[in-house]
Amino acid sequence: MTGAPDTSYDNILEIKNLQTSFFTKDLEVKAVDGVSFSIPKGKVLGVVGESGSGKSITSLSILRLIEEPGKVKGGEILFKGENLLDKSEAQMRKIRGNEISMIFQEPMTSLNPTFTVGQQIGESFRIHQGLSKKEAKKKSVDMLKLVGIPSPEKRVDQYPFELSGGMRQRVMIAIALACNPDLLIADEPTTALDVTIQAQILDLMKELQEKLDMGILLITHDLGVVAETCDYVAVMYCGKVVEFTDKKTLFTEPKHPYTVGLMESIPQYDQDIEGDLAVIKGSVPSPADMPKGCRFAPRCPFATDLCRNKLPDLETDEDGNQIRCWIYSDEWDGDPEVNVYERSESTS
Amino acid sequence: MFQFIIRRILQTIPVLIGVSIIVFSMMHLVPGDPAQVIAGEGAPQEQIDNIRERLGLNDPLPKQYLDYVTNAVQGDLGTSMRSGRDVSSEIGARFWVTVELAFYSTVLAVFVGLIVGIISATRKYSAIDTTLMLIALFGLSMPNFWLGLMLIQWFAIGIDLPSWVPFFSNTAWFSPSGWGSFSQIVLPVITLGTSSAAIIARMTRSSMLDVIGQDYIRTARAKGVKEQIVIYRHALKNALIPIVTVVGLQFGGLLGGAVLTESVFAVNGMGKLIIDSIQARDFPVVQGTILVASLLFVFVNLVVDVAYRLLNKRIDLD
Hints:
The complex is a heterodimer.
Chain A: E1 11-24, E2 27-40, E3 44-48, H1 55-62, E4 70-79, E5 82-83, H2 89-95, E6 100-103, H3 117-129, H4 133-146, H5 152-155, H6 165-177, E7 183-187, H7 195-212, E8 215-220, H8 223-229, E9 232-237, E10 240-246, H9 247-252, H10 257-264, H11 305-309, E11 315-316, E12 322-323, H12 343-347
Parallel strand pairs in A: 3-8, 3-9, 6-7, 7-8
Antiparallel strand pairs in A: 1-2, 1-4, 4-5, 9-10, 10-12, 11-12
Chain B: H1 2-29, H2 34-39, H3 45-55, H4 61-73, H5 87-122, H6 127-141, H7 144-158, H8 182-212, H9 215-222, H10 227-264, H11 270-279, H12 283-311
């Protein structure tokens, strides 16, 4: 379905200042508040953050699948250089499942229990390529083969309840990849699966990504998954991107105190088992009651008055990495020699 | 599937035995002597005794019951005390009248209920939703004999319309009694179907709302499926599973509701037959009619179970 490669854009997806809010009678909850990031063609971007940081809402905003009372309020979502927020609903339908596909966290509930696997994969071919039932079924078998499901001719006529969780997630991937999308959004695709199946699914995604040369937006809260699959990483906290770097920098020199906190909270195999696990103190503030300054300030061991009162901007350094933290700015009013890696000492 | 149907039919036997025992004992526990009724007011004792003997009313109850069941399985439901005709032929023609009445009412109820429920669910909390559900609540709370009388008043006796209304001078559009022609069928069917339509509408709304919130609906949307197809194909097929149960139960309820509706509209069906027979203490007819009605109810539930299997693949019946 994709014609001659369009070279007028470098990034398959570029999000600029995206704002998505949920409205109640007298309250606006800013779930995504000015998120910007981009995914170069054929690369994998990981979006990391705790529950409630706005990762999933960001991904649903891209496909314009936010439901009432939510609304994408502003910003731009440039897909192949075109703003998706300007598209009509009919144009969006042609993009969904065809140029941008999505797989979800819960393979157990993401498939319709009353249709066969083949019908559900085939529907993509029927909608986007106008194939007949018979042709669609044939191609569904091919897709099942591609995602490594044994005896696909038999599986194609089975219902989701006859498949295991890992198998179902493979079916979800088959549905998503049916029309050869340019961008795959995977919202915690392995969270609900056990560890061995997780590895299989990640390998499969990686393999197919290289084969089909598509970009992936991988949403996860698992840094192990990031290490295994991503090229770039955006760390989100309370509806904002706090750090955006390539994967290597993230693991070798994390800059934002939140990122450092996330890293340190991963238990190490050689960790002293007598000691407590490292945690980020406090909890995510309620979206209805956001701190005035940096959103991480109440939990940050380095926070100063500046942090508590003024929100830092997302600054880009010479390597193209981005950071939203006062510590790296000229205005920093705390200890000029501060070392974010010494967090554990400064909090104990 | 075939095996399932056979097994399901066998399961109805204890149900029917239970029903026959209950009905049989009920008729003998209520005061009033059928022989007295048949003989008429002021008949000599001798004649009453004769009738008692002829009908076997002097036998012990268990024997009366066994005789009844033995005959019933052979298709002989006894003889009406009032008319002297076979109970099976008394029921015969009226059976289809009631089945037609209940069937048309169900069709109306399902049709209206599904449409209203889906409209409400897809526009939840809107003015349309609130209005439709308020009407449904009215429909649900209205006793159907009263609704029947009102419909007769408005659309059979009719209300004179002001002269500026084109074509019609009054609203006497339908017939108030009998069964057979279209104009006779309309009012009883509306009367009987209204409360079921209301229940189905409310059920459809909540079932659809539940399904629309499911992950697989989001999957369908993310696939680029049109919203109408998301609702009518992906959502409705799942939402129908609990609705089918309600429809099956409603059909049974309609058989009961038919008793009142048939009386109001003078429809000569099984419901009216039961009422007339109870008043005359014609208990072979009451027993036979209730037995046939339960048979029908059990059959409808069998159909519901099969429909279940077709909708929900997880139920493996064999």
